[in-house]
Amino acid sequence: MKSEELVMLCSALSIKEKESPIGTLDSKLKAKGEQLLSLCLVGKVLINKLVNKDALINVLSNLWRTNEGVDIEALEGNLFACYFKNLEDRKYIQQGRPWTFDRAIIAFEEPSGTSDVASMNFNRVEFLVQIHNLPLLCLTEDIGTFLGKMIGVVTNVDLLAAKNIGENFIRVRVVIDSEKPLKRSLKVDLLGNGIITTMLLRYERLQDFCFKCSKLGHSLRECSEPRDGEESITEAQLRLNVWLRSESPPKQFHHRNAPAGRRYWGNQSGKPHFSSGQGNWRAGASWKKPVEGGPERIPGNRSWWKDVSSDDRNATTVEKLSLAKGISINEGKREAKSPAKDTQMMEANRTVGRVKEVGVPYGPNHEKKA
User: Fold this and answer.
1) Which CATH number belongs to the domain containing residue 157 in this structure?
2) In which residue ranges is the amino acid composition biased (Basic and acidic residues) (predicted)?
3) Which of 136, 182, 188, 273 is the most exposed, having the fewest neighbouring CB atoms within 10 Å of its CB?
4) Over pLDDT 90: what percentage of the chain?
5) What is the C-alpha separation between 288 and 299, in angstroms, rounded?
């Protein structure tokens, strides 16, 4: 039931019912309720149509990799409540914004006190915005904060993401009003001489928005703003609206064993660099384990290993190859091969002058004449 209907029903109560005794909530129950709210987030999918609640809960439950899990409860409309087990998990989800579903942005609110869902606005959305077309003068954190305040409320400034990929922009995390049009550019007089510098903006992980009014929550076909005569969207405006969307720059991974925190590949200082686990598997290459007395690999054979004693380590290659004859691998185990057939192998008994079959009981009662 909608909140407006509940207000109307409450107004229909009689005076006698309104003057009934008032109950006071116990302090322990109050503290328990406040603790539950401190770990709660209420979200709303900013789209005109109703979303599939089961699909939404399933997607977010699998997407959010929290330490202790999260319970998601469907509310009215496109609203849902998320109950976390600890404060760190809730902050982790908040820092990962913006979250999207069905190509629509999800706005979150933190409930507090006696406020209900009807009193929440869901008009604040957090974005990572890239500011492009910057002169070198503006590549500082303070100027990034100044420019970010022209977009919304600044929570963080990132200068390293662009440097890692060799580009020239500033990345700011800002909270904007979702009911206002998205800013597509900033105009700044940098030197105070009347020369205006136009800086273009890109929104990371931005999904569907209206190309006409630049607002979130609906598409161009669903826009309710009246058209200005025969005005239509030009090709340049269309390309600018498409360019407004941006993917997040690739993350910089640091290797803990590298001296500068980064793992380099290719030629460094004119010398080729190989991974520590990259061996030369080609025929003719020998490989030895660093442990004294360990197994040694036979040159030209990469399918099995042979234990070589300390006395054989100084043997020549021909001697090593001769030691390897008659030994093969059967599912990782060594076994000796005999040139005789496997079935009914025959061997001569020189002392008796008779022949016996291997695998058949041999004795006085089972002798066979030659």
Assistant:
1) 3.30.70
2) 331-340
3) 136
4) 38
5) 10
User: Has residue 47 been placed in a domain?
Assistant: yes
DSSP 315-361: --HHHHHHHTTTEEEETTEEEE--SS-SSS-EEEETTTTEEEETTS-
Instruction: Determine the Cα–Cα distance for residues 41 and 323; give it in Å rounded to an integer.
Output: 71
Q: 272 in a domain, yes or no?
A: no
Domain around 68: 30-119
Asked if residue 141 is part of any domain, the answer here is yes
Identify which has the larger pLDDT, 41 or 207: 41
pLDDT tier, 116 (very low <50, low <70, confident <90, very high otherwise) = confident
Last residue of a domain, one of 73, 90, 119: 119
CA distance 200 to 218: 23
Measured distance CA(231)–CA(213) in Å, rounded: 13
Nearest to 143 by CA among 182, 170, 183: 170
Q: Is the dihedral of CA 157, 159, 160, 161 positive or negative?
A: positive
Taking CA 11 as the corner, what is the angle to CA 10 and CA 16, rounded to the nearest 5 degrees? 85
The DSSP letter of residue 242 is H
Name the pTM for this structure: 0.60
Q: What share of the chain is helix, strand, coil (3-state, %, to 5)?
A: 25, 25, 50
Give the ranges where the chain is alpha helix by DSSP (H).
3-11, 15-18, 27-38, 53-63, 87-95, 141-149, 160-164, 235-243, 317-323
Residue 345 has pLDDT above 50, yes or no: no
